[in-house]
Amino acid sequence: MAYKVLIVDDEEPARDLMASYAKKIAELEVVGVLSDALSAKRLIDAGDVDILLSDIQMDDLTGIDLVKTLKVAPITIFTTAYSEYALESYNLDVVDYLVKPISFQRFCKAIDKAIELMQFKQQSDEQSSLSDPVLSRTAVSNFFFVKTNRKMVKVEHANLLFIESYGEYVKLYTHDDIILALQTMAFMEDLLPSNDFIRIHRSHIVNLNHIEEIEGNLVRIGEHQLSISKRMKEQFMSMIQRKGLI
Questions:
Q1: Which one of 147, 209, 210, 234 counts the least CB within 10 Å of its CB?
Q2: What pLDDT shows up at residue 128?
Q3: pTM for the whole thing?
């Protein structure tokens, strides 16, 4: 099937480039190439868009404000010449953030992520008659099961490195795999034992046992560097101290 893509940018060369890239990918159908966010909002509200490719800095309404006004936002990829917007866009659970000039290779990587999320959402919808995506643990369990790709996968607490928010989903990073599941961060926070797992950012829950470095507002787990939000920094450091890790 073809995924319907809307391109929004107030600069014609940027619109033309994104459209030319999209037309090279067989899985995509370009349903609109627009110069303003208000026109994009009307098209999205009509339910005709799967993937939104939007510039951030536009005259009438920014791309960030556009997404905030939508009742149901499509899978979103932001494009911009200004890297300082990365954090705010990340907080909106966008799939990716492309800094201009954008290469076709980088564009393809972002689209692959969007399609992966679309396909997982479709699979989850097909399984809606089954049980909850995550089975709650008992008080003595050191594992839980998560439903993904038409099967139930066992995830042991000790093997779980961290959890990342991914739009309507979460990504579970383990030693061996990255598991995509339809679930909320709040549910995962309640599910996991609070003596080992802590939320350090609205987008991340970490396993304290796998933290290798803490430097400023960053923690390192393997090859991953994750930010600690200012709001959660004090609670995180207090927990580290209570466990005698520092």
A1: 234
A2: 46
A3: 0.60
